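Working notes for the structural subgroup meeting. M.R. asked for a predicted model of this chain before we commit to crystallization trials. I am recording the input and output together here so anyone reviewing the notebook later can reproduce the run.

Input as submitted:
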Amino acid sequence: MMVDRELFVSAPGKVILHGEHAVVHGKVALAVGLNLRTFLRLRPGKDNGTVEINLPNIGTKLTWKISDLQALVPSFHNSPESKPLGPSPEQLDFLKTFAGFSNGTTDTESLAVLAFLYLYLSICGQALPSLEIVVWSQLPTGAGLGSSAAYSVSIAAALLATSGKISIPAQENIRWTQAELTLINSWAFQGEKVIHGNPSGVDNAVGTWGGALRFQAGEINPIERVPVLEILLTNTCVPRSTKTLVAGVKDKLLKFPGIMEPVLSSINAISEECQRVLQAGVEGLTIEQYSVLEELIDINQHHLNVIGVGHPSLDRLCQATTSHGLHSKLTGAGGGGCAITLLRPDIEPSVVDAVKQELSAYGYQCWRTSIGAPGVSLHSSSMLPEDVTRSFNKA
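Returned structure, recorded in token form:
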């Protein structure tokens, strides 16, 4: 049963609070929902003949005839009630040929389009609906903040809802059931596979459930009820290769096991202690608990420098925030990329403004936002942030 109404869906980005790199070696990592979100508007098509995807962030707008797509359906449809199986190399080759992309496609636009087509054909199956979808994101791409997962989660949720595979909650901003969220997550993971090949599953899990997740040795477990924390998120805009940084840590570990193992164990202990503090502070963190979180951030940033994933751009950032009494660490792969700065609830706005000004002067991008954000959500049009409404109206 296809749903004949406009839907608005959003999913959060993600940051690693603690445990990056150590997680590759079996230690605990804590990933949290980032309240910079990807928003999707789905409208039933004006006629039954076409499906349109519009991605204004990357300047892409494509329309296909459903009659052309119908020919691909037999190669894609598996029951969304069961665990999704794909995407197979053959299916991806079909899609690349259909969309006119070369087989070596790796650019953001092509991968986003392929993920959409894969999810549309697989979830909607025999009765392909005529749809217009616009996806607009507050998240920068390629910054390690889970932008592709937020995209895959939003599309999976919207397609599952419009094709009647999951419910549409009567009240907007009400969450889906655990079983429905599990289904959304399993389809979003397939979208992530189209984009990344072999993703860990952490980013789409954060996009689906939000809050905080504990990740260790491939096991992903939501942490029940965590407080939302205000942060300053900074993108140094320094590009880095995750693969090279991960390989560098591995080399050090092989060369100096007696030095590196204790550092990774210490990072593991930081993740454990942070989880304990967050779970103890559900009703609101005390000043003492904030102090502990700040100390953990400082210790972990030093550890990350020790294991070789720091960068002068991150050192400058930490010096700038420290001079204002704030505490920062890199998040993600390091070597540039992004960092988070914890903001206590009683911080003066003038302090945050001064820090942002200083970091902007280095050419960095800053957002005041929060972590521990809710996962994938359905919205009414009146509840959307202004920047989102503006972007949808322009699209």
